[in-house]
Write a structure and sequence with these properties.
The chain is built from twelve helices and 32 strands. With 525 residues, the protein is an alpha+beta fold. The strands form six sheets. It has a nine-stranded antiparallel β-sheet. The chain has a nine-stranded parallel β-sheet with strand order 27-26-25-24-20-19-18-29-28. Strand 25, helix 9 and strand 26 form a beta-alpha-beta unit. The radius of gyration is 23 Å and the shape is globular.
């Protein structure tokens, strides 16, 4: 990436952006210094630093379509859109000039030291580096921070291929584990954390094993939220299951294995039902208090939880809600501000991005040999540190519109991250009485073909000969890797459709119908 045209520095989040002065390759203002050479953006400051903006004055075609990513999960909001100067684009952006057919853009490598986003307008584009600690300035105290490594993306023949090439470039420094197919059962979208016990979990395991029908790759069976004494949505301690429902978690894991599945477990690492020190200032959601991972003691707790789950015999752990527990907001509400102003972590000398990256590294190290799913985790920071990433917000066993909006959109626009950042998980395929199987089965087919993670939520009361036949076909296709060996799948109408309905697959063009006869219901989902 060539050097920027201008640089602006904001030492305090309530103050103005200061125009930096360039001298001998260094941009300085407000007691901070920025160098941007060879793509690496280095930032140092004697005191506090909040944001840095790097501007490239390079005209963008007026009719260009622009695409960005999301901080954590997407929320049905990924799309190509005409120029909107105030639209913030997390991590990377692509532009597509329909007149010339060329695609171009820029982005930052995974594991940056800042939350990085872009804005694009007719006269150029700006990289915004959020270097804050919580809602206040980070005290670098003279330390030099590698805030980001910036890359330019050149046309690779089509927008789809260009996005693949861009993701490959941004992830060149990591090598995700090769897990093979990740397929299994998850009870969330029919149980929703209520009224289930070990017997129901074992029934789920038996169902997915039956549907796999002797496939040599074993499926997973995941115990989702609702197993620990705090109940649905709560926090730790994570030392035992609910009395009378999950009396012995090691026994539950062993029983799942005996049936022929691989046991998995959900937990919320940064929420505690106990009062005490190490809390994140001002953050609680009614289920407990958020923990501050800049305290070493919090990392000790998280490590102990993961080792306990491993000792119980669980082969997969899904860690959830950490972004919400840190920021007090989910992705759409984070926006460019990320969080409320005024609070900071216990350790004010590291950026929020550094603190989160260190948390993910500790989780990865403590769960050696365990398959890790990150949910509500920051994609660019979690890359290579989770095995599987929930890339979209929840699908639904109660409302098909959520599955259409969240699941299809996430898979279409983030599938190029699959196998490069992590295994993509567009979320579960529900099979429930409340949702239409003729639509769910199409989502099942798409996910199975994609080679990404496939989890199914099968309500026992919704099983029929037809659903079992379709589920079995989809699960066995996914366990065999889908169409990945044949070049994968590609959305053909993604430039004009947020939930693409026309896809290229190894068998030819596949067309899906995602809506009922009246179309998408704007009051649902």
């Amino acid at each position: 990436m060539n050097e920027p045209t201008q640089v602006f520095i904001q030492p305090d989040p309530t103050g103005d952006l200061l125009t930096a002065t360039l001298s001998v390759g260094r941009w300085t203002a407000g007691g901070a210094e920025v160098t941007a050479s060879g793509g690496a953006v280095l930032v140092s400051a004697a005191g506090g630093i909040s944001r840095v903006a790097l501007r490239w004055d390079e005209p963008v075609p007026v009719g260009a379509l622009v695409l960005g990513d999301a901080w954590e999960r997407s929320y049905g909001d990924l799309q190509w859109r005409h120029l909107q100067p105030d639209r913030f684009l997390p991590w990377y952006w692509l532009g597509h000039d329909e007149k010339t057919g060329k695609t171009f853009g820029a982005g930052v490598d995974v594991h940056p030291g800042a939350f990085c986003s872009w804005t694009v307008d007719q006269t150029g584009f700006t990289l915004w580096l959020d270097l804050r600690n919580g809602g206040g300035p980070t005290q670098l105290n003279g330390r030099q921070l590698t805030a980001a490594v910036v890359r330019r993306f050149e046309d690779a023949a089509t927008p789809w291929r260009t996005l693949h090439a861009a993701v490959e470039a941004m992830s060149a420094s990591i090598t995700p584990r090769d897990l093979g197919p990740v397929v299994g059962a998850n009870n969330w979208y029919y149980a929703y954390g209520e009224g289930f016990d070990e017997k129901a979990v074992l029934q789920d395991a038996a169902t997915v094993v039956e549907l796999a029908d002797g496939h040599p790759v074993k499926p997973f069976s995941v115990v989702d939220d609702g197993w620990n004494p705090g109940g649905n949505g709560s926090g730790g301690p994570w030392e035992s299951g609910i009395s009378g429902l999950f009396d012995d978690m090691a026994r539950t894991a062993a029983a799942v294995k005996e049936i022929g599945a691989r046991p998995g477990l959900w937990f919320r690492p940064l929420l505690s039902r106990e009062q005490g020190p190490w809390g994140r200032t001002g953050q609680s959601d009614g289920f407990g208090r958020a923990l501050d991972p800049s305290y070493p003691e919090v990392l000790d707790l998280v490590r102990a939880d993961l080792r306990r789950f491993k000792d119980w015999g669980f082969e997969l752990v899904k860690h959830d809600f950490s972004t919400y527990d840190l920021f007090g907001r989910f992705g759409p509400a984070m926006g460019a501000r990320l969080t409320d102003e005024g609070w900071q972590f216990h350790d004010p000398t590291r950026t929020t991005a550094e603190i989160i990256l260190d948390l993910y590294r500790e989780i990865r190290a403590a769960a050696e040999g365990v398959v890790l799913i990150g949910c509500n985790t920051v994609g660019h920071l979690a890359a290579g540190l989770v095995d599987v990433q929930r890339t979209g917000d929840d699908t639904s066993g109660r409302d098909w519109e959520r599955t259409r909006k969240m699941g299809v959109n996430s898979l279409a626009f983030r599938l190029p991250q699959h196998g490069r950042f992590f295994t993509v998980d567009a979320d579960c395929v529900p099979c429930t009485p409340q949702t239409p199987w003729e639509l769910n089965r199409q989502f099942l087919d798409l996910v199975a073909r994609s080679g990404s993670a496939l989890f199914v939520s099968v309500d026992p009361s919704a099983r029929t000969a037809q659903t079992d036949h379709d589920l079995g076909d989809g699960i066995r296709l996914a366990l065999s890797g889908g169409n990945a060996a044949d070049g994968g799948i590609e959305p053909l109408d993604w430039l004009v459709n947020t939930t693409p309905a026309v896809w290229r697959a190894s068998t030819g063009t596949v067309r899906y119908t995602w809506s009922r006869p009246w179309g998408a219901d704007p009051a649902a989902g």
